[in-house]
Amino acid sequence: MTSLKYKNNQSVLVVIYAESTNRVLMLQRQDDSTFWQSVTGTLETNETPRETAIREVWEEIGLKIEENSTALFDCKESIEFEIFPHFRYKYAPNVTHCHEHWFLLTVEQEFEPILSEHLAYQWVFPEQAIQMTKSPNNAEAIKKYLMNGFPQYKRI
C-alpha cells in the first residue's frame, strides 16, 4: 500500500530583482501556462524558510546563493493565502490555505536562468510583473518592496 505524500502548506516567495535594469524575473508555470510568478517553493522537513529560498532558487533557475549572502533579504514578512482550487490536489484533504514567507534577491544584472520547473522566463519592470502574475500575494510583494525604487533594502 502506497501512502500519498502531500505538499507542506508552508512556502516561500523569492522576488528576484536586477539592479542594473530595475527589472524583476518572472517565470511561466508548466502546470498553468497562463500563470507567471516569482520563484516559489515548499518548506521541506526541518528546513528553515531561508534554506528553502536558497534551495528553490537553485532548483528553479540554477542560481547558487551562499547561506550568508546579503543579496538574499528576508523581508521578515509572511502571509496566509488561499490556494487556488486547481492546485489543491497537491495538498492534504481540507488544506485550503498556505503560509508564505517573503524574500527578495538582488542580482547585479539580468541573466539567463536555467529553467527546470518552468516553461519560460521574462525580465520585466515591476509594474508589468504585477500585471502578469495571477498571484495577489506575489503582486503585493513586488508592489510593496519594488515599486519605489527598492528603498527598503540595498545589496551590500
From TrEMBL:
It comes from Haemophilus parainfluenzae HK2019. NCBIfam families: PRK09438.1. It comes from the Bacteria. PROSITE patterns: NUDIX (PS51462), NUDIX_BOX (PS00893). Keywords: Hydrolase. Residues 7-146 form the Nudix hydrolase domain. InterPro entries: DHNTPase, NUDIX_hydrolase-like_dom_sf, NUDIX_hydrolase_CS, NUDIX_hydrolase_dom, Nudix_hydrolase_domain. Pfam families: NUDIX. This is Dihydroneopterin triphosphate pyrophosphatase. The lineage of its organism: Bacteria, Pseudomonadati, Pseudomonadota, Gammaproteobacteria, Pasteurellales. Its cofactor is Mg(2+). Signal peptide: none annotated.
